[in-house]
Amino acid sequence: MSNIRVNAEKAPIADRAEAATIRSNPRSVMFAATTVAVLVLPSLLNICHGGSAREMSTVVIAASRVIPAIAPCCEHTATVAFNVIPAIVTTLVTEPVIRVEEDWELNITQPDTELAAPQVGTVMSPLQSTDGVFVVFLLNHRFNELALGGTEVQFWSGDYQFGARRDTKPVLSSENEKVTWTQKLMVKGPVGNRYLCFRVINGQSNTWGAFGGTEPLHMNLETTLEDLSGYSSQFSVHNSGVTYASNRVATLVLKAVRGYSETNELVFEEATPVVVYETQSN
Predict the structure, then answer these.
(1) How do the domains of the chain map onto residue ranges?
(2) Which pTM value belongs to this model?
């Protein structure tokens, strides 16, 4: 099995992202702590796809740092609501958590295939901080190759990107499409030689069919962590969202979260769905 295994001293410089500044909407306060470059910006889409930009953001590209926030954007003015509901956690055993699984659901109303709209990014971390290691999962765009459609996994530490892997699927195209997937973050390997492993599994959509569970959506990173005791689903909720054309999304929901021990025992479960993003009609 081919895995990406790097450390801070050996991280590939070629995978460093370019920077951008954006005009964000009122929810940008929630995203301001995030240093994730997950937005395929409309001006860049013109480079990839010769059409006219229909996004409301102002874009400036530089060659230094990554963009400072995930900022949900709409192609047109829309009334939106963000509902963050504290999860109900059921603790089953007291063993350390070494694997966390998050079940996600994205409901799209009317996609735009020319602009690969909408676009979504989720963030998952063992540390509840973007100053340390975290993982970004992109849907319907691939940032590092500025491509439309498909998915991409990125490992970050602060504003430095260790690497990325992608799955080159077509642009989402089905009206009223539901996209579901599970993303797993794990600590693996013997004590003293641990690594973080991120996988996307059990993906399903009308356009893509089954996705995940294969090498393109699997990355490893060496770590000194012994477990995932610092994980919080609220960090995932607060730093994930619709990054482009949010008016084309009905809901983005974190459906459930589960934590497992080294012996595969269920340590905790959060079974109450959390609405990360929801569009409401006037």
Answers:
(1) 8-279
(2) 0.72
